[in-house]
Amino acid sequence: MTVKYYNKNMKTLPVGELKTHFSEILNDVKSGEEIIITYGKKKENIAVIVPYKTYKKKNKIKLGLLKDQRS
Prior knowledge:
This protein is of the alpha+beta class. It has a domain at about 5-50: YefM-like domain (YefM-like fold). Helices cover about 30% and strands about 30% of the residues. It has helices at about 15-20, 20-30, 50-60, and strands spanning about 5, 10-15, 35-40, 45-50. Strands 1-2-3-4 form a four-stranded mixed beta sheet. It is elongated and about 55 Å long.
């Protein structure tokens, strides 16, 4: 499997590699890794696979954010 590291915690994979090693990649994601998916001849970044816990933390709704603000 050809893996290119984008930074210390994130690696990049072309779509073909993702398809070939899908189960292994999911195990990596389950263990906390974030993976960038690339596509095409230019290897353009098209998606990021992140663990659900990470996604859930980043998308928490903060209630009362506009409390005490007037327009």
